Amino acid sequence: MSEQVSIPPPRTLGKSQLAMAAGLIVALPLLLVAWMVVGMTPRPEPKLDADISLGVTSWSPDGTVERTRLLPALVIRNRTQESWGNVSAALNDQFFFYRREKIAPGEEIRVPLEFFATKGNAFFHPPSNVVKEVTLYAQLPTGARGVKEEQITDTPVGAFKE
Question: How many C-beta atoms surround the C-beta of residue 112 within 10 A?
Answer without folding.
Answer: 19
